[in-house]
Structures are given as structure tokens and as C-alpha cells.
Specification:
Elements (H helix, E strand, L loop, with lengths): L1 H12 L3 H10 L10 E6 L2 E7 L4 E6 L6 H16 L3 E6 H6 L1 H12 L1
Parallel strand pairs: 3-4
Antiparallel strand pairs: 1-2, 2-3
Length: about 110
């Protein structure tokens, strides 16, 4: 578990541009007054964004997630999060870059 905490800390310090954009939208209860955390360890995985109140995990995916091995890993990870009682919402990085309003609307629908 200590290793996952270290990994999460490294990931927080090295956010992708898309993670920065989404984090700016979610942080400090800006999004529907919900408390979000970023890069949170869950067992042997790290969730990109996490809201305990609504049991939501948001994952951002870049092009590398189209590779077969990463698709298998993402599927296992999603199943683990869902088994723990969380709803997993995935966005592609280009959705963050080109349609942040649509991302906001989809997240708003999911929390209701």
C-alpha cells in the first residue's frame, strides 16, 4: 500500500495537461459543491479523480489506452472499482481538450 501512495504522489506532481484542466473544474468544491480528490490509491490501483459522496471515479484516457494490454488493464481496474461500489466514468483526453463543456454536462447528469 505504501508503494501505491508513493505512486499517487508522483502522479499528482506530474499531471497531464488534461488532468490539470479537469482538476481545475473539480477542485475546491467548484463542481456542484462536491469534494473530489485526485490520484487516490485503491488497492493495487490509483484512481485519477474520486468523489466519495457520490461514489464516482473519473478516469482520463490518452491514446496509449487504445493499446491491447492497456485495454485489458483498464477493464480489470474498472471492474475492481465497480466491485468496490464506485461508478467509473471515462473521458478521452481529446474530450477534455475540445469539449470540456460536454464533459461538464455529462458529469452533471451522472451525479443526479
Amino acid at each position: 500500500m505504501k508503494d501505491m501512495q508513493k505512486i499517487a504522489k508522483i502522479l499528482r506532481k506530474n499531471q497531464t495537461p488534461q488532468e490539470k484542466i479537469l482538476w481545475n473544474l473539480l477542485r475546491n468544491r467548484k463542481f456542484h459543491n462536491l469534494k473530489f480528490k485526485r490520484q487516490v490509491p485503491f488497492g493495487r490501483y490509483v484512481a485519477d479523480f474520486f468523489c466519495e459522496e457520490k461514489k464516482i471515479i473519473i478516469e482520463l484516457d490518452g491514446g496509449q489506452h487504445n493499446e491491447y494490454e492497456n485495454m485489458i488493464y483498464d477493464t480489470e481496474r474498472t471492474k475492481y472499482f465497480e466491485k468496490e461500489g464506485y461508478k467509473v466514468i471515462r473521458f478521452w483526453n481529446n474530450e477534455i481538450d475540445k469539449n470540456i463543456e460536454g464533459v461538464y454536462l455529462k458529469l452533471s447528469e451522472v451525479i443526479k
